[in-house]
Design a protein that fits this description.
Elements lengths: L2 H49 L3 H31 L4 H22 L4 H23 L8 H13 L4
């Protein structure tokens, strides 16, 4: 390799990192704006709910807005984790999918036209995702862990000692 090749690679990698960081900053700002709008919308829905005669419709809208905010918070967490570790962790993505699946299941239940079999399958999917998250914690698939994750892992290992 020539010295000019190394210099070109460094320049390309620098441009790449700058581009990726710019895109992620834009996405985080967009998600924070969506979160802010969601909180305002939820507050306004709560005020409307207090004065509405058909409480069930207003309550469904309120629950939908709250669950939307939870999913947005989880997405913001994914992007913040990316900036902290410069990679997306499998455990965090699993948590986002769990939150999104729970949101969809709860909304289906509030529509009141869901069968028992549908609820069973939604529940099985959620249990499978939670089981996947526990396995990720137990087998240390997230290499960069927080003190909270270390505490959970120690608790899991004490409860189920190897051998």
């Amino acid at each position: 390799m020539k010295i000019t090749d190394i210099g070109i690679r460094k320049a390309v990698m620098r441009i790449y990192r700058l581009t990726i960081h710019s895109i992620f900053y834009f996405v985080i700002i967009t998600l924070l704006i969506a979160l802010f709008i969601g909180v305002i919308r939820t507050t306004l829905n709560l005020m409307v709910l207090a004065g509405e005669s058909d409480l069930m419709t207003g309550f469904k809208e309120f629950i939908s807005a709250i669950l939307y905010i939870i999913v947005i918070i989880e997405l913001v967490k994914v992007f913040v984790e990316y900036f902290e570790y410069e990679r997306v962790r499998l455990g965090i993505l699993t948590e986002v999918i769990i939150a999104f699946t729970l949101r969809e299941m709860i909304l289906k239940v509030f529509e009141m036209n869901v069968s028992g079999l549908d609820i069973f399958f939604w529940s099985m999917a959620i249990f499978a995702l939670i089981g996947g998250r526990v396995l990720i914690l137990y087998f240390n698939l997230d290499k960069s862990e927080t003190p909270y994750v270390r505490k959970i892992r120690r608790t899991l290992r004490r409860a189920n000692p190897p051998g």
